[in-house]
Specification:
This protein has 8 helices and 11 strands. By secondary structure, it is of the alpha/beta class. It has a single domain, classed as Spore Coat Polysaccharide Biosynthesis Protein SpsA, Chain A (Alpha-Beta Complex), CATH 3.90.550.10. The two termini are 27 Å apart.
């Protein structure tokens, strides 16, 4: 059974003012997501599932889904604030979504095979999809064994300023033991460091970091629903609290419920963290096209 690619795209409507201004950064106006889908299909993924907000469904189907429907089965699911367990209601003052793991939960009814989770607007690289697809195929029929693609931190930095990164620790067998969010990471005097308070701490060039590229099996949905109740009981009135994937994964690891294999990748991640990053992204994609790694236009 081929794995599924689950694309987190619920934030697109707010970031792009609808999808009319969705940024084309490829030589023929391709979005970063176009490259993700292309890489996933040639790596062996067999279905694409998008999670979006219902208010921009028509726009999304017209401008996004229509490009892929002739190439691969596509499903669309919705993340909304009121999609909560029985007994819970939304604070009328809450505007912020419930976070990435809440978005993942929306795929339960349409995903019945091993699946990858990615951000819609991050470029992950061809090798990463191949590595992840191979691992997901091994996970078919299993439970409690998950994975994530660990990027070498030096391949994820922005030239325009500091970045936040989930810095991973692993055991001797490359299984994840923790993910710690470092909110200020950059290269200082040629060395990768993170800042906490006024203290700078050096990180090795190949320190693995999470860029939200995960691999799960369907049993993950049930764990997520159960732990979401605990999360809401503690955080329902915090209008800014979010149910993130690393929070769920950390719970599963620390309770010895599941393990997460960290898959090393040589790929370079990039995205538009700062407006100043955009020209560099355009240049990097043009270079990949020039080297023959991608056709242009990408989708016909």
């Amino acid at each position: 059974m081929k794995p599924t690619l689950f694309v987190l795209a619920a934030g697109m409507g707010s970031r792009y003012g609808g999808l009319k201004q969705m940024d084309g950064v490829g030589p023929s106006g391709e979005t970063i997501m176009d490259y993700s889908i292309y890489d996933a299909l040639r790596a062996g993924f067999g279905k694409i599932v998008f999670v979006i907000r219902e208010f921009f469904e028509d726009d999304f189907r017209e401008k996004i889904v229509s490009k892929y429907e002739n190439h691969v089965p596509v499903e669309v699911v919705f993340q909304e604030l009121d999609k909560l367990p029985a007994g819970f209601t939304v604070n009328p003052e809450r505007v912020k979504p419930w976070g990435t793991n809440h978005a993942v939960m929306m795929g339960k009814d349409v995903i019945h095979e091993p699946f990858a989770v990615i951000n819609a607007d991050d470029f992950y690289g061809r090798e990463s999809y191949s590595i992840l697809a191979e691992q997901l195929k091994k996970m078919n029929g299993q439970e409690n064994h998950y994975c994530m693609v660990g990027y070498r931190i030096h391949n994820t930095l922005s030239e325009s300023g500091s970045v936040a990164r989930g810095v991973c620790a692993t055991d001797e067998n490359e299984y994840l033991t923790s993910v710690v969010e470092r909110t200020h990471v950059e290269r200082v005097d040629g060395v990768v460091k993170f800042k906490e308070g006024e203290v700078w701490t050096e990180l090795g060039e190949n320190t693995p970091v999470s860029m939200n590229m995960w691999g799960f099996t369907p049993d993950y949905f049930e764990y997520s629903e159960k732990y979401f109740i605990d999360f809401l009981e503690k955080n329902q009135e915090n209008l800014k609290s979010e149910y993130f994937i690393p929070l769920m994964v950390d719970h599963l690891i620390t309770t010895n419920t599941a393990d997460v294999k960290v898959l090393d990748t040589p790929s370079k991640w990039f995205g538009v963290t700062y407006a100043e990053d955009r020209p560099g992204v355009v240049a990097k994609l043009q270079n990949l096209v020039d080297k023959g790694e991608y056709p242009t236009p990408l989708w016909k």
